[in-house]
Specification:
Layout lengths: L5 H6 L4 H10 L9 E4 L4 E3 L13 E4 L2 H6 L3 E2 L10 H18 L6 H8 L3 H12 L3 H17 L5 H7 L5 H5 L2 H5 L3 H5 L6 E9 L2 E7 L4 E7 L2 H11 L4 E4 L2 H15 L15 H11 L7 E2 H7 L6 H9 L12 E2 L12 H14 L1
Parallel strand pairs: 2-4, 5-8, 9-10
Antiparallel strand pairs: 1-2, 1-3, 5-6, 6-7
Helix pairs in contact: 5-6, 7-8, 15-16
Length: 360
């Protein structure tokens, strides 16, 4: 997991006022950075402890559990500050459940997952949803869709791929196939055969730009130095789709998107045909909420999603974005402030950020 280095995290809780604020918020990110003890009870706790808050005047801060014990305080029986935290236990339980779903030949149901975690169905469902950001059912559906995508590219039978992915019937999958694949499974397996994708290629200040759209909305905005390479990229994504060169009306759409490159802070009020997993959709939605002219790190996005340990997964979802500028992945940088990691080149990323800064 990609986690925040301890020195940097400690800086967020360097002062007593910052530490007290973390306690009042019961902030899990402060656990392990410092501990607090209550003089009136003789007990020390983690910052995230769910116990009733003491009066500020009765609270002391320590940098380690050992220091609190040396001062004569005993460990809280609720948050167990000397051992594995409840939050860490919960994270391990949910990680195990995800592992079971990922590896199971037939997808487990909620009751089986809750039973393995030693929880009630209600408690497990609430915990899983809070930590992963989607319900167990939605996570299972996303994994089944991933398996179908993989199996469709290997198997000669669409039906076999559907059953091997854990669906009990064709009907259950076909009911949601459009959302899972962006098209029917047979069309997906055929490389987009029968799907019409209009496209146009032009030039902008950042080089060549390709815009492509299905009847649902824009499905690709690609940037590069070579127009022919951009078209090959689109063909590789949909090798059997019907690619139609844009007419005059579509050329106007190209001009509108090219205008977004010149002024990326304006936003794009056009329908988008987003194709990805449920998690990728959550990350892309988070990207669209980043204010123009500002940047965030992958860890920042992970925390906003309520998944502070998933920075690497966030980075993969950001890299999977094929809608340059419309999904503003250029606003995500590394923790050290570097701009590496942009699929259309660091030079373009820097230019987009500079333009947004000037507009702001």
């Amino acid at each position: 997991m990609d986690t925040e280095p301890k020195p940097r995290a400690a800086a967020r809780f360097a002062s007593d006022s910052q530490r007290w604020a973390a306690i009042t918020r019961r902030e899990p990110g402060a656990d392990g950075i410092f501990y607090y003890a209550v003089r009136t009870t003789g007990v020390f706790c983690r910052p995230s402890c769910g116990a009733r808050h003491a009066l500020r005047k009765n609270v002391r801060f320590f940098d380690s559990a050992a220091a609190a014990e040396r001062a004569g305080f005993r460990a809280c029986k609720r948050c167990h500050p000397g051992g594995v935290s409840l939050a860490q236990q919960h994270a391990a339980m949910v990680a195990r459940a995800c592992h079971l779903i990922d590896r199971a030949e037939s997808m487990p149901d909620l009751a089986a997952l809750a039973r393995d975690a030693g929880m009630s169905r209600f408690h497990f469902h609430r915990l899983f949803t809070r930590l992963i950001g989607m319900t167990p059912k939605a996570y299972v559906a996303a994994q089944r869709a991933r398996r179908v995508r993989e199996q469709l590219l290997r198997k000669g039978s669409v039906t076999g791929a559907i059953y091997d992915a854990g669906f009990g019937s064709n009907g259950r999958f076909y009911a949601g196939s459009d959302a899972a694949l962006g098209m029917t499974p047979s069309t997906y397996r055929a490389g987009g055969d029968g799907v019409s994708i209009r496209f146009a290629i032009g030039e902008c200040s950042l080089g060549s730009i390709l815009v492509a759209a299905t009847d649902k909305g824009i499905c690709a905005i690609l940037l590069g130095d070579d127009a022919a390479a951009l078209l090959r990229d689109l063909e590789d994504r949909f090798p059997k789709a019907q690619l139609i060169g844009g007419d005059q009306g579509f050329e106007r759409l190209l001009a509108q998107v090219a205008g977004l490159v010149e002024a990326p802070g304006r936003g794009l009020d056009l329908p988008l045909d987003l194709r990805g997993t449920a998690f990728q959709h959550r990350v892309w939605q988070a990207l669209r909420k980043i204010r123009p002219g500002t940047t965030v790190s992958y860890s920042d996005i992970a925390r906003r999603l309520g998944l502070p340990g998933s920075a690497r997964a966030v980075a993969r979802a950001v890299a999977a974005n094929t809608l340059a500028v419309a999904i503003p992945c250029h606003r995500v940088i590394r923790r050290d402030g570097s701009l590496s990691g942009y699929r259309w080149g660091v030079t373009r990323k820097r230019a987009l950020l500079e333009r947004e800064a000037r507009m702001r």
